């Protein structure tokens, strides 16, 4: 399993385990905010016996971040990260090919969220595994979300969306080493951009 960042005590974006941590964090923060709202209501209505208090105003204001946490949590409900065995298998591919992989990648858009359990960016190629890409329309949707990575890019990356891990492995093995010395730098920039495109 990916190591946690010791400075921030959380799984970084692009590391395996990030999405589970993100969900757990939203549940904990939401629970704390809800407890504060209920405490404010209790103090206002049962201790002070009036609705004309700052406690009630505070409860209304605190409800805004609670709503945001609930929305973020709802957006992650359908997300299915790699199982432990799948992660270990994919991680072995990364080690043997010496190609870095990103895990638990989300891309948000006005149309919703697209989730990629594993993504490889190497030599101006983006190979992504998406469980939702089971038919042509859903594959096109996954490609459209991922295409945002090409905005402002020096050269447009080739994007391949795979519906299963076997196809992903096959596509990764096809990737050749970069001929341009600057390509690893551009790939790194693309990886950095990708992790900022979602939560």
Tell me what the structure shows.
This protein is α+β, with helices and mostly antiparallel strands and 199 residues long. It has six helices and four strands, in the order αααβββαβαα. It has helices spanning 18-47, 54-76, 84-97, 136-146, 165-174, 183-195; strands at 101-109, 112-122, 125-129, 158-162. Strands 1-2-3-4 form a four-stranded mixed beta sheet, with helices on both faces. Helix 3 (84-97) runs parallel beside helix 5 (165-174). The longest helix is centred in the first third of the chain and has 30 residues, at 18-47. The chain is elongated, with a radius of gyration of 21 Å. The model has no long low-confidence stretch (mean pLDDT 88).
Key features?
single chain; 199 residues; alpha+beta; four-stranded mixed beta sheet; 4 strands
Structural class: alpha+beta
Query: Assembly state here?
Result: single chain
Question: Could you tell me the number of beta strands?
Answer: 4
| Arithmetic mean of pLDDT | 88
What Rg do the Cα atoms give? 21 Å
Shape: elongated
Cα distance, first to last residue? 20 Å
Task: Give the count of helical stretches.
Answer: 6
SSE topology string: HHHEEEHEHH
Q: Approximately how much beta-strand content do the residues carry?
A: 15-25%
Biggest β-sheet strands, sense, barrel? 4 strands, mixed
Could you give the order of strands across the largest sheet?
A: 1-2-3-4
Poorly predicted regions are none
How helix-rich are the residues, as a percent range? 40-55%
């Amino acid at each position: 399993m990916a190591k946690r960042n010791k400075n921030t005590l959380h799984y970084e974006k692009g590391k395996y385990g990030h999405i589970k941590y993100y969900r757990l964090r939203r549940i904990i923060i939401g629970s704390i905010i809800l407890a504060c709202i209920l405490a404010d209501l209790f103090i206002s209505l049962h201790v002070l016996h009036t609705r004309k208090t700052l406690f009630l105003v505070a409860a209304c204001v605190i409800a805004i971040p609670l709503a945001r946490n609930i929305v973020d949590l709802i957006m992650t409900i359908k997300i299915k990260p790699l199982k432990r065995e799948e992660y270990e298998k994919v991680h072995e591919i990364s080690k043997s090919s010496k190609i870095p992989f990103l895990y638990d990648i989300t891309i948000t858009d006005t149309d919703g969220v697209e989730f990629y359990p594993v993504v490889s960016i190497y030599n101006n190629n983006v190979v992504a595994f998406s469980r939702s890409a089971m038919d042509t329309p859903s594959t096109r949707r996954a490609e459209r979300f991922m295409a945002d990575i090409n905005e402002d890019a020096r050269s447009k990356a080739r994007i391949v969306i795979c519906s299963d891990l076997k196809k992903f492995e096959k596509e990764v093995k096809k990737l050749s080493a970069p001929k341009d010395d600057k390509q690893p730098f551009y790939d790194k920039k693309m990886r950095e951009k990708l992790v900022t495109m979602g939560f």
